[in-house]
Amino acid sequence: MDARDSRYVSKIILFVDNKVLFLVSNTPNFKGNLDLPGGHIHRGEDLIEGLKREVLEETGLDIKNPIRITQKEDITFYCSKLDKKDLKNIKLSFEHSDYETLTIQEVEKSPHPITPMFLEVVKEAKELKDKGKIKFINILPIIIIFSSLLMLVKGLYN
Q1: In whole numbers, what is the pLDDT of the chain averaged over residues?
Q2: CATH classification of 5-157, choosing from 3.90.1310.10, 3.90.79.10, 3.20.20.70, 3.10.20.30?
């Protein structure tokens, strides 16, 4: 734990099609366990900014539009979507030795243990996703349309 770290943690469930990205921990107390990307938030840091920083440090991935799922104890859980092609861009930090994309059934049969709370939240997020209560949208087209409209309006009044 870094001296800048608070007790608060943000973790993310990254859906890759019908699977979830898990990291294999390399830290002494959890070596070999399945882990979710994320970690300790620095003091004074926003939860989402800290989550993005942690995911970038641990995987090299720049996550977009995380959706808050729940909070358990001092851990806030988010989810987002990851394209399968982005898996080739993963660059693991020293904290993790490998990564796997797994279904819930594969996690339950995995030789790697998982913290029960993490498995519970992954199941909850998957259920919300499957019921359509979580929608992953690409906001880039919206930004492009808005920018175009803004330029058009500015042009009309100049």
Answers
A1: 89
A2: 3.90.79.10
